Amino acid sequence: MTKNLDEAMAVIRKYAPNFYPKIGMILGSGMTNLSDQLTDAITIPYQAFGLGGTTGVPGHASLLVLGYLNGIPVACLKGRLHLYEGVPYESVATLIRVVRQLGAHHLIITAAVGSLHPEVQPGSLMVITDHINHLAGNPLVGPNDESIGPRFLSMANAYDSDLRDLLFECADKLGIDFYEGIYIATLGPSFETPAEIRSFQVLGADVVGMSVVPEVIVARHAGMKVVAITVVTNLAEGLSEEKLTHEATLQYGEIGARHIVKLLPEFVAAIGAEIAST
Ligand code: HPA
């Protein structure tokens, strides 16, 4: 195990000696209040892991929340670390590996995105089917810890198709609609130029964002099944007259997040039932 991971695990085990989550969740902007629904919650600030502390981004918290959602033990990363803050890949990786090390085999990622399709409007939800890594790097660069995962990792079905099917079953019951599409990751923190957005459309991307990809790579490396649910907070630069601001992003994020906050307890229960039956 890596030093960071060992240290973080030691800290968590002091707070929660006997907590073994089945599912990990990354709660992006607008979605963090889902963790208020957890029962018997134990909250640990990321600072406790020596990972660089609070994100400083309005709308983003920096807490690991352990607790039960619909009776299923879950580990919520309430607010994520973003590379654009200058956080090293290793810190992003450690948070995901901690969740896996605690016991979770499933990871539900939520995030805000910009839409590359004018008809996919702010407030819409999109489940990610695949990604394009347009970041400057990869979180697995460097020595590989074989006890965590392989040196060369297949990214086929990285966004697990069975989990997506299960998600759609839950969403259908609640009357919640999703688009499906491909996520392209940019480093940020500046939004993209209109020319970049046009090039991403040509590449085949459907939505753009500044996270998700490193998290999915690390989670897959550690053998986790991943599903990524995104909220469209804006049309990408050049596709609308509206000026892009983080505040506008948060406002529309709230609208889509309401559906996600309704859906996730059902989805977590469905995954829990599936785990129990295998
Ligand atoms: N670009 C990048 N990241 C984003 C956007 C966007 O338009 N909207 C929300 N996150």
- Fraction in beta strands: 15-25%
Shape: globular
Question: What is the distance, rounded to the nearest whole angstrom, between the alpha carbons of the first and last residues?
Answer: 28 Å
Bound molecules: hypoxanthine
What is the H/E string? HEEEEHEEHEHEHEH
What is the mean predicted local confidence, pLDDT?
91
Number of helical stretches of at least 4 residues: 6
Instruction: Give the strand tally.
Output: 9
Class per helix and strand makeup: alpha/beta
Low-confidence stretches are none
Biggest sheet details: 5 strands, mixed, barrel
How would you write the strand order of the largest sheet? Answer: 5-8-7-6-9
Radius of gyration: 18 Å
In which range does the helix fraction lie? 25-40%
What can you tell me about this protein's structure?
Strand 3 and strand 4 (72-78) form a beta hairpin. The model has no long low-confidence stretch (mean pLDDT 91). Helix 2 (89-102) crosses helix 5 (213-221) and helix 3 packs across helix 6 (246-277). It is built from 6 helices and 9 strands; from the N terminus they run H-E-E-E-E-H-E-E-H-E-H-E-H-E-H. The radius of gyration is 18 Å and the shape is globular. The chain has 278 residues and is an alpha/beta fold. Hypoxanthine (HPA) binds at residues 112-114, 186, 191-192, 208-210, 233-234, 236, 244, 249.
